[in-house]
Amino acid sequence: MNNFLLHIQYDGTNYAGWQIQRNAVTVQEKIIGAIEVILKERVNLIGSGRTDTGVHALGQAANFRTDKEIDLNKFQYSLNSILPDDISIKKIEKVHESFNARYDAKNRSYIYIFTHSKSPFFNKYSYLYPPIEKINIGRLNEMSKVFLGEHDFTSFSKVNEEIRNKICFVNEIRWRRVKDLTLFYISANRFLHGMVRTIIGTLLYASEKNLNENYLMDVLSKKDRKIARESVPAKGLFLYKVRY
Q: Does the annotation mark 52 as catalytic?
């Protein structure tokens, strides 16, 4: 059985996230449909993880298995010719038969983009936030250290009784100013539904209200989504990279 890994980019604006679901258009559905047109067989496409409605990806990964031999360059070209313009297969490689894009992933990282003045070029891919001076990079970086290491992130995820394990290990988190943009970066072994956007929203709230790290530690310890603050909009979030 041959196993192939796809490296994928997509604009999530028009999709209800990555994972196939009823009565909604998803990225996974579009790619599976294109693969099945070419191979003329049913496939199971395994993604490295879900992205929520409206979230984009610079480095999503997914694998599928088939008995057929594939010319990688030709197959990539054919896939991209079928897929809509907002989904792109950047690379295809053959991997070990046992490889699983979800369970073999060691680390995932996201970036979030803030703009501080109206721009038609960034509108779909960033959050237009108040004056740039309102984001205190130094303070946000200090407070963000609370999330480093292993924690139960129940307070920062959407309620989902199917997922009992809410423990994640965050190994890197930082804020950075790039000209008139503000970038947020976070890397962890796994993420929960809505976790990144809720962390960002809560950090911004704490910074604006001059709250300290004890506030964030208290939110973590309560394990209650109602305690954390409102999530930032999905359109500024990108799945940046998956490491194996």
A: yes
DSSP label at residue 185: E
- Maximum Cα–Cα distance for the chain, whole Å? 59
Residue-level pLDDT at 176: 96
Please, which residues have CB within 8 angstroms of residue 133's CB and are 6 or more apart in sequence? Answer: none
Q: Which of 52, 104, 152, 218 is catalytic?
A: 52
List of E strands, the chain: 2-10, 46-47, 56-66, 87-95, 107-115, 127-128, 149-152, 167-178, 181-188, 237-243
At position 236, the amino acid (one-letter code) is G
Amino acid letter at 128? L
pLDDT tens per residue, range 38-88: 999 999 999 999 999 999 999 999 999 999 999 999 999 999 999 999 999
Alpha-carbon gap, residue 149 to 159, rounded angstroms: 22
- Report the C-alpha gap between 56 and 225 in whole angstroms: 24
Question: Could you report the per-residue pLDDT of 199-222, keeping only the tens digit for each?
Answer: 999 999 999 999 999 999 999 999
DSSP β-ladder status, 149-152 and 167-178: antiparallel
CB 155 within 8 A of CB 203: no
List, as own/partner pairs, every contact residues 132-141 make where C-beta atoms lie below 8 angstroms and the sequence separation is at least 24, other chains included. 132/177, 132/180, 132/182, 134/208, 135/175, 135/177, 135/182, 135/204, 135/207, 136/207, 137/175, 137/176, 137/177, 137/182, 139/207, 140/175, 140/203, 140/204, 140/207, 141/174, 141/175
Half-sphere exposure of 48 (CA within 13 A, CB side): 26
Structure tokens given for 210: 């001059």
* pLDDT-above-90 percentage for the chain: 93
